[in-house]
Amino acid sequence: MPSALIDAPATGHEPLVVGYEDKGSGPALVLVHGHPFDRTMWAPQLAAFSATHRVVTPDLRGYGTSSVVPGVTLLGDFATDLAALLDHLGIRRFVLGGLSMGGQIAMECYRLFPERIAGLVLADTFPAAETDEGRARRNAMADRLLAEGMRGYADEVRDRMVAPYNTAASETVHRMMLAAPPEGAAAALRGRAERPDYRALLTGVAVPALVVVGRDDAYTPVADAEAMHAALPDSTLRVIEGAAHMPNLERPEEFNAALRAYLERLN
């Protein structure tokens, strides 16, 4: 699998190894995974869209084949890593999509370098800052992952990540969660607890957006997606039936149809 060495001063050591897939040609489509997953969660989209687009799916720092950096990884760290990787690949402007934490990273990217983003895909995510209760919960979970590893957490959240009736996707997601490095996942949790509020940012997004959500998503329910859709100046909302938090894996044909229609509109 390809990887790149990028400058990442926030790590305290250089360079940072970033694993990624880069397939196809044409307009660039960059897809950012959520927590605690890796780039393989986008396998159905990599296969479907590399015929028409240059699809890049990176492993975030702390996940997959990328460097594991303990401590705290802020969303801004993820965003600057992505910018450096895309510079390395010679990609200046791109459609950026992300699911869950990946969607929040996409919002942070738009905050930091909106001129590079041709379109924004926000899947099963939400823009609000963390509450005090949520901040304490994320930090406590980070402590637990470091003490116990990923097994207990993965077992507990499996049926919320993927609807239990989507058996094959559930098995795939469970394997990804078990494979996540606890130090990387904990650092992301601590950083995500400190994220800013992106609700005002969304009202000024100057590119077309696609908002996607699984009908049965308990983490980021349809109401959250509807609120983002209402805030964005130019957006399309697609609710995927028969899916929970991972509609791109649970119902890839339906998810891909929504993404394809959006990309055709952009092109």
3D structure, described in words:
With 267 residues, the chain is of the alpha/beta class. The radius of gyration is 17 Å and the shape is globular. Strand 7 (209-214), helix 9 and strand 8 (235-240) form a beta-alpha-beta unit. An 8-stranded mixed sheet has the order 1-2-4-3-5-6-7-8, sandwiched between helices. The chain has 11 helices and 8 strands.
Write a brief structural summary:
The chain contains eleven helices and eight strands.
What structural keywords apply?
alpha/beta; hydrolase; Alpha/beta fold hydrolase; single chain; 267 residues; Rossmann fold
What is the fold's blueprint, element by element?
Layout: E1 3-6, E2 16-23, E3 28-32, H1 43-49, E4 54-58, H2 75-88, E5 94-99, H3 101-112, E6 117-123, H4 132-148, H5 151-161, H6 167-179, H7 182-192, H8 199-202, E7 209-214, H9 222-231, E8 235-240, H10 247-250, H11 252-266
Parallel strand pairs: 3-4, 3-5, 5-6, 6-7, 7-8
Antiparallel strand pairs: 1-2, 2-4
Helix pairs in contact: 2-3, 4-7, 5-6
Count the domains: 1
The CATH topology is given as Rossmann fold
> Radius of gyration over alpha carbons?
17 Å
Helix tally? 11
Largest β sheet strand count, sense and barrel closure = 8 strands, mixed
| Name of the level-1 CATH class | Alpha Beta
Taken from the alpha-carbon principal axes, the silhouette is: globular
Oligomer: single chain
Distance between the termini: 30 Å
Class inferred from helices and paired strands: alpha/beta
